Amino acid sequence: MLIASKSGCISVSKLVSETDNVWTLEVENSLHRVSKKDSRQRAFNAMSDALEWAGADQEMIDHFVALEAEKSAVSNQVLG
User: Which of 17, 34, 56, 73 sits in a 20 to 30 Å window from 3, CA-based?
Assistant: First the structure.
């Protein structure tokens, strides 16, 4: 997973647990809780979603949308 902040910082994390209200993520061997109601940071699976939420440049968002679509198409070919 990814943790994105409105300041533009995006960190790679591992999902440890999830409830209706909180993601508990591991970032560099320490646990980090992210409230699902927090307006300053959020957890995402897709980089394009994290970038869009953080307000990144549209060209960068489009680049990751294309990469994710390509990865999805390859996965579908392998599974199908």
Answer: 73
- Burial zone of 76 (CB within 10 Å; 0-12 exposed, 13-18 middle, 19+ buried): exposed
Q: Give the pTM.
A: 0.83
Asked whether the beta carbons of 1 and 25 are under 8 A apart, the reply is yes
Pairing of strands 14-18, 10-12: unpaired
Q: Write down the number of H helices and E strands in the chain.
A: 2, 6
- Report d(CA 80, CA 69) in Å as an integer: 16
Q: Which long-range contacts (CB under 8 A, 24 or more apart) does 36-40 make?
A: 39/6, 40/5, 40/6, 40/7
Tokens matching residue 61: 């968002």
Q: What is the pLDDT at residue 6? A: 93
